[in-house]
Design brief:
heterodimer; A: alpha+beta; Arc Repressor Mutant, subunit A; 3-stranded antiparallel β-sheet; 54% helix; 20% strand; B: mainly alpha; two-stranded antiparallel ribbon; disordered C terminus
């Protein structure tokens, strides 16, 4: 779930902050609104993200926040990737 | 680069973006302008008026001008605490301004104690050191690098006045205030040009970019 590049970017941003709205995530992650909406829906279905919908100045406003499950999943992903690449030697220039 | 360093960079970039708009610079510049005007006009309550007017104005500007462009984000504990510290530092700085104004007025009176004379002799350099230092500390506390520059400019301007350059305290503060306010305005204009407003539409999760009159994307 998190490995998909766009979702990884979204989750990484939500991991380091407390919460953010769609405008922030769209602007920081460089996604179109359709992409962002789709990925956030998937993350919400997986239980990794909580979407808090409200109205501000009579306009819809949605804040996204990583759940505890989402933080645990991201931490697990980080450790997996770290372990995966830990044994790889540094590639010297020009090697095949 | 480790994964943690990349995450720190993401967080820091998000944090620095919250200062990119220049509103804080405008607020700080206007603060010094209000100090300068207070001294020039002898009206001590100009600074409290600034605080009473500027803070709500800034809050509204953030909501109506800034948030539609870069969105709204809440940071985790460390950053939240740093903003509280900055607010406290700037509030204390404003109060110190009032205290120094009153001390300055008192020191010119014939019944003022002799000890005040030392203060009066080196007043400008002392004020510059304290206020410039306060801005520097606020810059460090908030991870807001421009405050270091503003603190340095303020200290330099007041030190120059103390060393005999041809301007007084009020003029120094007006000059520094105007400079910082102008910098803030430039940053704000650049920000408004760089980030077009975005908004969520009435449909769930849908976002649309505001376009020109013809509605094209």
């Amino acid at each position: 779930m998190i490995h998909e590049p766009a979702r990884l970017l979204i989750v990484a941003h939500l991991y380091v902050i407390d919460s953010a709205d769609y405008v922030f995530l769209m602007q920081r992650a460089g996604l179109t609104w359709g992409n962002l909406s789709s990925h956030l829906s998937k993350l919400e279905e997986a239980g990794y993200v909580e979407l808090i919908k409200e109205f501000v100045d009579r306009k819809p406003h949605t804040m996204a926040k990583l759940t505890a499950e989402g933080r645990t999943a991201f931490d697990a992903y980080r450790h997996q990737m770290k372990a995966l690449f830990a044994d790889l030697p540094d590639e010297s220039p020009g090697s095949g | 680069m480790t994964r943690k360093a990349l995450l720190s960079e993401i967080e820091r970039k998000a944090w620095l973006q919250t200062f990119e708009h220049g509103l804080w610079d405008i607020a700080i510049g206007l603060l010094w302008l209000s100090f300068g005007l207070s001294i020039l006009t002898g009206i001590a309550w100009m600074t409290p008026i600034w605080v009473a007017v500027a803070l709500p104005a800034m809050q509204q500007s953030m909501r109506r001008l800034i948030a539609p462009r870069i969105g709204h984000v809440t940071f985790r504990g460390r950053r939240r605490r740093s903003m509280s510290r900055v607010t406290a530092i700037l509030t204390v700085t404003a109060l110190l301004g009032l205290v120094f104004f009153l001390l300055t007025s008192w020191s010119t009176r014939s019944d003022a104690p002799a000890a005040i004379d030392w203060f009066r002799t080196h007043m400008l350099a002392l004020i510059g050191l304290i206020w410039g230092g306060a801005l520097g500390v606020a810059g460090w506390a908030a991870d807001f690098p421009r405050l270091y520059t503003y603190g340095g400019i303020l200290f330099g301007a007041l030190l120059g006045a103390d060393l005999g350059l041809p301007y007084n305290l009020a003029e120094a503060l007006l000059g520094v205030g105007a400079l910082i306010t102008a910098a803030g305005l430039i940053l704000l204009l650049r920000f408004l040009w760089r980030y077009p407003p975005l908004q969520e539409s009435g449909t769930e999760g849908a976002l649309e970019k505001r376009t020109g009159g013809d509605g094209s994307a």
